[in-house]
Amino acid sequence: MTYEEIMQKLEELGSDQTKRIFMNHGAKEPFFGVKVGDLKKLVKYVKKDHELPLKLYDSGNHDAMYLAGLSVNPKLISKETLEDWAEKANWYMLAEYTVAGVAAESDYARELAKKWMDSDEEMMAVCGWSTYSNYLSITPDEELDLNEIRVLLNRAKNSVHNERNRVRYVMNGFVISVGSYVPALHEEAMGVAESIGKVHVDVGNTACKVPLAKTYINKIVDKDRVGVKRKTCIC
């Protein structure tokens, strides 16, 4: 399918109901309101051409941008393109999922995550923390820098409640990821989770809730899945 055909299909798949839901979550125009499940059905038509998802992301249309993240090959995407994507991620769904998932599976995961974390721009910082969290979920333990992760854990412990809104959410998620995917730091993550307690995030006009890190990690323990890695973090 061509770019024009994909955009036409997205418009056909969009619905006012889904669009209202996305808008309640903070989505920015333009977009048609396509369910993620329907976007996934189009991946097979997009991923064959590396330039097509890049063009879709550049459209500025949320549905097309999300589809681009599902379809692009993270091993072929350049660092410059990832940085451009992060700059164009104008709300949390693109920042936390699209950009972070692709960046985490790229060759620049740690480099970009650490850079983005320090950004003054909220969504850029969100990209950073979410990228590192996703990176932990797919990377073998022997390839992880435990000291670096420990420093970031302490940073989350000391600053999460004073951070910007969605940064608080992804910092809390980072603690959960460490406790769930890094056995060597599980106990330290549990200590941080205990210390930070409940993290308050304005989730707008939605029923979304911020997971309590300690409770979430304990569920992973109960399932005996601490340290079990994911095959992919792109979703």
UniProtKB/TrEMBL annotation:
InterPro entries (alphabetical): ARM-type_fold, DNA_alkylation
Top-rank taxon, per record:
Bacteria
Q: Which Gene3D superfamilies match?
A: 1.25.10.90
Where would you find the membrane-spanning parts of this chain? none
Know the name of this protein? DNA alkylation repair protein
